[in-house]
Amino acid sequence: MIAGYLLSNITWIGQVGISLFYDQYQFLKVWWQAAMVVFGMLLILYLLQSAIDKILTPFSAKLIHIILILGACLGLYFSYQDFRQNLSHRLLGERFHLGVYLFWLGWICISIYFLLKKKNAKAQQQEVGMDM
Predict the structure, then answer these.
(1) Does the pLDDT of residue 27 top 90, yes or no?
(2) Domain that holds residue 65
(3) H-helix segments, 1-132
């Protein structure tokens, strides 16, 4: 909700730009719509990483989660660079930027959760029983 609220706090000039030139981003002007988009994207990432965690071996899953953390860190870095170099993105305001950064941090947290998550003993016994 916080990320959606921050994303909707676009500066006045940013709102005019969205209204005139970028109709596909109208949802960013309403906090709950922006929050639903962020929640939906993070939910998709969570479900994808959950499937990765269940399907792959623990070593492969951890490797994928580490790669995804690095990818999210790169996304955070490139978002920061874009907001500093691109004038039209700079005009959207710091609150909007913080909302974008919160999305990337949310994805990093999801990946860290799966990295640190331990399988319960029953699931491990079933996997061992299947290997024999």
Answers:
(1) no
(2) 2-131
(3) 2-8, 12-21, 31-55, 58-85, 87-90, 94-116, 121-131
